[in-house]
Design brief:
With 359 residues, the chain is an alpha/beta fold. It folds into 2 domains: 2-167 and 339-355, 3-Layer(aba) Sandwich (Rossmann fold); 181-326, Glycogen Phosphorylase B (Rossmann fold), CATH 3.40.50.2000. Helices cover 47% and strands 14% of the residues. The protein has helices at 10-23, 44-50, 66-84, 96-107, 127-138, 147-155, 168-177, 182-189, 204-207, 210-222, 233-241, 245-250, 262-270, 281-288, 303-307, 318-327, 343-355; strands at residues 2-7, 28-33, 57-58, 88-92, 112-115, 141-144, 162-164, 197-200, 227-230, 254-257, 274-277, 293-295, 311-313. Strand 12 (293-295), helix 15 (303-307) and strand 13 form a beta-alpha-beta unit. Bound molecules: uridine-diphosphate-N-acetylglucosamine. Uridine-diphosphate-N-acetylglucosamine is lined by residues 9-11, 36-39, 42, 63, 94-96, 127-128, 202, 233-234, 237.
Length: 359
Amino acid sequence: MRVVSVVGARPQFIKAASVCRALRVRHEEVLVHSGQHYDYGMSDVFFEQLGIPTPDYNLAVGSGGHGRQTGEMLGLLEELLIEQRPDIVLVYGDTNTTLAAGLAAAKLGIPVAHVEAGLRSFNRSMPEEINRVLVDHISALLLCPTTAAVENLRTEGITEGVSLVGDVMLDTARFFAESVDAAPVLARHGVEPDGYFLATVHRAGNSDDPGKLGAIVSAFAALDRPVVWAIHPRTRKNLQAFGLDTVVAASPSIIAIEPVPYTETVALLRSASALLTDSGGMQKEAYFFGVPCVTLRDETEWVETVELGWNTLVGADAARIVAAGTTRTKPEARPSVYGDGHAAEAIVDVLERFCGGTL
Ligand code: UD1
């Protein structure tokens, strides 16, 4: 089996780390990096740390408006896929890279396999929601992490090619978590176990809106313990543009740091009192490690984390962020709703059965 896998943004590297490893045991993989993320700290360091093979191609599209960025990838991927003619194109998640790769392949009649299919926020103002809905509707194989995802697809009339495989981010977390030594990382940032919050903010709905970003900053400054905030480049630019960078710098409780590599994130997350985030993937990672999550959005695709009491949705409302951060709900039960840590093998199995004509 010959598979072209397309990645481009930070969360996709974390997912691909496990799938590449499982896939390459028996099959040929051509790895393509779209170049959507290009900073060393947003891209290269993940390949190095997670042992992801060097991409065979880097399209180097860089940043830009959604249309230009997606369109540029689409054209380049079409040429590449015509040349490569793989049996399957593997795409991950919900970024512009996912959409471009899915669309390029589907139009060439190459089957698309979508890892993390079926996720829905039911908020069409999120670019990611548009990407994931479109890709699900043009995919031959829908590789779902949760039963909720399978149900979402059924509601949209998609029942063929759907497999519940579990969550590949759990595979990656299990593979690397044991080797992480948290102590030096915490010491570097001057925090104690269970004595700080970890925060990330990058969702366009928050970071492009001065009112929302301002409310988030004021909440972080008002919390009862330090907030280690790993600031995404788009958020850093907007903090400056909105004049909020001075507020961050003046706050004694905000420890502003650059985006952190995977193992450092795991170290900081596992020892945190709670996670404050608008990331999708990190809500799950908090659940994997038994850390309460406060989600800076009004809805989530990872509904299990909320239903099970580990995640609180607070939007960009300063008072609610402070209240949830102070309460830090930590229920007793943490069932295995994201599979058994072997989602990557399950995915390879589905691809093999599809190519062998037995699915
Ligand atoms: C993208 C994904 C989002 C994912 C996130 C992970 C889309 C629509 N969004 O959002 O789903 O959760 O990646 O981080 O695909 N920038 C840099 N250096 C980089 C990359 C980006 O400085 O290496 C800055 C640029 O100013 C850029 C901005 O960040 O314009 C946004 O980057 P972009 O890739 O468009 O979206 P993300 O916000 O990273």
